[in-house]
Design brief:
Number of strands: 4
Structural class: alpha+beta
Helix content: 10-25%
CATH class: Alpha Beta
Strand order of the largest sheet: 1-2
Strand content: 5-15%
Order of helices and strands: HEEHEEHH
Largest sheet: 2 strands, antiparallel
Number of domains: 1
C-alpha cells in the first residue's frame, strides 16, 4: 500500500519542524517536536494521517514535492549530502537500487560527510608522493 499525499495543513506543519536557516543549498534537518536536532545516526520517520505505517521523512518530502514514486524506484540523497536527517528536496534523488549502490560504493560516507567532492589535494597528475618518514615510537630512543 502506497502512502497518500498529505493535506496542505499537514504539509505546513511538517515544514515548520524543518530547519531551513542554512539557505536553499544547505541541508535541512528535521527537528524533534521540541525543536532539538535528532541524533546523527537517526533516520527520521513520520506518520502521515490516514496511513497506518511510519515512512522515512525523505520519502514524505518526495511525496510532497514530486508526487507519487514509481514502484521500481527508491529515494536516496545526492553525492554531496550524506546526512540522514536532511529534508531538502534538492538533495533527494529517485533511482533504482543499482544506481544507489553504485553511488554509495564510490563515496565513503564516513570521509565525505559534509565535505564538497573534488577538494582533495593530490598534486600534479603523475607526480609521485614523497615517502613518509617512519614514525618514532614513544619509547624509541635513537642514538644520533
Amino acid at each position: 500500500m502506497k502512502p497518500p499525499i498529505p493535506s496542505a495543513a499537514w504539509i505546513e506543519l511538517f515544514w515548520q519542524r524543518v530547519d531551513r536557516t542554512g539557505g536553499a543549498d544547505a541541508c535541512w534537518p528535521l527537528l524533534t517536536a521540541d525543536g532539538r536536532l535528532l541524533s546523527p545516526n537517526t533516520v527520521p520517520v513520520i506518520r502521515i494521517p490516514n496511513f497506518n505505517k511510519s515512512i522515512p521523512a525523505a520519502r514524505a518530502v518526495w511525496l510532497m514535492t514530486h508526487g507519487e514514486l514509481p514502484d521500481d524506484l527508491e529515494i536516496y540523497r545526492n553525492s554531496l549530502c550524506r546526512h540522514k536527517q536532511c529534508c531538502n528536496p534538492r538533495h533527494l534523488r529517485a533511482g533504482t537500487t543499482e544506481v544507489r549502490k553504485r553511488i554509495n560504493a564510490v563515496i565513503n560516507p564516513r570521509f565525505m560527510a559534509g565535505r564538497p567532492i573534488g577538494i582533495i589535494e593530490a598534486g600534479e597528475p603523475g607526480e609521485k608522493r614523497k615517502p613518509r618518514r617512519p614514525r618514532k615510537e614513544k619509547n624509541d630512543v635513537r642514538a644520533d
